[in-house]
Amino acid sequence: MDSDNSDNYDQEFWELVEEEFMDDSDEEQQLQNERRSGSSSRPKRRTTVDRGREEGHNRLFNDYFSENPVYTDVQFQRRFRMHRHVFLRIVDALGNHDEYFQMRVDVTGKMGLSPLQKCTSAIRMLAYGSPADLVDEYVRIGESTSIECLEIFVKGVNVVFGAEYLRKPNNTDVEHLLRMGESRGFPAVLIRILQQDNKEEQVFKKNKFIVNFKEI
Length: 216
Prior knowledge:
The structure is a single chain. The chain is mostly helical. It folds into two domains: 53-165, no CATH class; 171-213, no CATH class. The chain contains nine helices and two strands, in the order ααααααααβαβ. The chain has helices spanning 3-38, 53-64, 73-80, 84-97, 115-128, 136-139, 143-165, 171-183, 198-203; strands at residues 189-193, 209-213. The protein has a two-stranded parallel sheet. Strand 1, helix 9 (198-203) and strand 2 form a beta-alpha-beta unit. The longest helix has 36 residues, at 3-38. It is globular, with a radius of gyration of 25 Å. Residues 21-53 are annotated as: Disordered.
């Protein structure tokens, strides 16, 4: 590639970058204008988009949760970052905790988003760090609703499962971890990451060893 072609290529590249930047800026400016106009006293009719929520639920159910799903357990675990039964346990627990994760009818008389859709949206955003509007294409759920689902999902999981899982390990937990390690070929070894807990120290007697991994 000669210098002239290289210069032309560089110029075209930066023109595309600038064009993309201006598109993003225009979109952000439009959003700001909509927010300002929405804060005025004059009522503004909200634009409703028919995303095909029932179609989204049926596709999600047939792909992963039917008796003969399209995708295997291995594919489910890879994409949801957990086993299917764990995901369904979370969905069931949140449904019992908060009616937000129950099937409801909206103001137009149509069925709203299903618990599977809401929890899938939240899990995908947490697992992949996806933007809120990315799950819209598959789950059929809007950006603002995705953010709402994520916030309520996180709060619900913390309330329902916090006492059991989101805490420091006690003596019983440590003994259980030791048994698991022994069954996997690491007898009397506890792998502890980043921090030291005095409760763990009390469990160990002689011939017990701790493998420490320090943060670099």
